[in-house]
Specification:
The chain has one domain (5-84, 91-127). By secondary structure, it is mainly alpha-helical. The N and C termini lie far apart (40 Å). The chain has helices at 5-25, 29-47, 53-85, 93-123. The chain has four helices and no strands. The chain crosses the membrane at residues 7-24, 30-46, 67-86, 92-111. Keywords: Membrane, Transmembrane, Transmembrane helix.
C-alpha cells in the first residue's frame, strides 16, 4: 500500500491525538510514538523512489549511519545517567522499546527528508543565490 500525501497528513494528525489519549488514559501512549515514527519513515522512504537507485542508496546509508551514531551515543548517556546517578538498573521494557523505536524511525525519516530535499534542489536547474 502506498502512503499518499492525504493519508500522511491524516496520520500525522491522528498519532499526536492518540498519544494524548494514551497519556490521559494511561495506556498505549508509546505505541502512538512508534506509529508516528513508522509513518514518517515510510512516507519519506517512498519519496526516495523518485530518485535514481545510486542516489537513494547513498541517502539511505547516510541516514542509517547517523541514526546508529545517535543510538550509541544516546544509549551510553542513558546508561551512565540511569545506572550510576539515579541507581535505576532497569526500566519498563515494552514502553522503552516503543519509545526508542518511534524516536529512531522519526529521526531516520527526518534525515531522509532533509537529504531528499537537498538532492531535489541540486538536481533542479534553478539558480540559487
Amino acid at each position: 500500500m502506498k502512503l499518499t500525501k492525504k493519508w500522511f497528513i491524516a496520520l500525522l494528525l491522528i498519532w499526536p491525538m492518540l498519544f494524548g489519549l494514551g497519556v490521559w488514559d494511561g495506556e498505549y501512549a508509546m505505541s502512538a510514538v512508534t506509529g508516528f515514527g513508522v509513518t514518517i519513515a515510510t512516507y519519506y522512504e517512498q519519496q526516495l523512489e523518485r530518485l535514481d537507485k545510486r542516489q537513494a542508496t547513498i541517502i539511505r546509508d547516510a541516514a542509517n549511519s547517523k541514526v546508529m551514531m545517535f543510538v550509541f551515543g544516546a544509549l551510553m548517556l542513558a546508561f551512565s545517567f540511569g545506572v550510576f546517578f539515579f541507581d535505576q538498573p532497569q526500566v519498563p521494557l515494552l514502553d522503552t522499546i516503543h519509545l526508542v523505536l518511534g524516536t529512531l524511525l522519526t529521526l531516520r525519516g527526518l534525515l531522509i527528508r532533509s537529504a531528499y530535499e537537498e538532492a531535489m534542489i541540486d538536481s533542479s536547474k534553478a539558480i540559487r543565490l
